[in-house]
Structure formats: C-alpha cells, structure tokens
Amino acid sequence: MATVEVILKEKIEGLGAEADVVKVKRGFARNFLLPQDRAYEATKSNLRHVAQLKEARARREAEELADAENTATKLKKLRLSIALSLGQGGKAFGSVTTADIAALIADKSRLSIDRHQLLLDAPIKTLGSFEIPVKLHPSVEA
Q1: What structural domains does the chain harbor?
Q2: What phi-psi label fits residue 128: left (phi over 0), alpha (psi between -120 and 50 degrees) or beta?
C-alpha cells in the first residue's frame, strides 16, 4: 500500500488541520483530496509555503479564541425566558428547540450563536429553569 504526502488546505475531520502535512493512501489523495481541492501535493516548493500557512492559521485561531472568550463572558451574564403555551395537566404544546433559543439570543443580545453550538440533549417540553451549555470553541464553553 503506497502512501503519499499531501498538504491539507482545510480542516478534515480525522485527518488534520489546515496546512498539516499528512501521509495518506495514494488512492485517497488521487480520488478524493486532490480533485475536491482539499489538499495539494507535498513538493519541496509547497513545503516551504507551509510555514506561512501555519503562521496565518495560528493568528486566526488566536483571534477565534479571543472572540469565543469574549462571547462566553457575555453569555454567562445573559438570562432569557420563553413563553410556552400549556394544556391540561401542565403539559406544553410544542417544545423549545435549539433554533428557538439561538433566535432569542440573537434578538436579545445581538450575539450570533449557531443552533448547533447549543448543547441541548432534547427539546425542552417542561416548565422550569434550564442552564444550556454553549460550545463556542473547542476549548471554550459557556
């Protein structure tokens, strides 16, 4: 099984991050990574260019981390309430989903939170107070 070295152009789950030099099977590189423009061959000239790409990635990741920490401090201060219609026996009509919560956060605080960042196991169908964790960055959770 022959392997080749490629330089990734973007993060690929289970393989590596942008500007990483990785060894993959020749067929995976030839049939998937290279045609979809997700990687390029690790030639001598391209390897020299990798250092610049890694510096840019480090700067971008530092900015993303700072933004995530700033957003986390704002979210920790935020308290929201949602009106829910109740039927007989205190059962709710419908439920509160991550999309509802993300829209409410955007409306009340002008923070842009994707619904997939909200770590809610199941939609909320009961009355009560809930603390919902938000995954803002791999190392920052609010």
Answers
A1: 3-65 (3.40.5.10), 67-141 (3.10.430.100)
A2: left
Distance (Å, rounded) from C-alpha 74 to C-alpha 63?
17
Dihedral (C-alpha) 94, 97, 102, 104: value to the nearest 10 degrees? 20
How many whole angstroms separate alpha carbon 63 and alpha carbon 112?
Answer: 16
pLDDT tens digit sequence for 104-113:
998 988 888 8
pTM greater than 0.90: no
Contact present, 32 and 12 (Cβ < 8 Å): no
Q: Band the pLDDT of 92: cuts 50, 70, 90.
A: confident
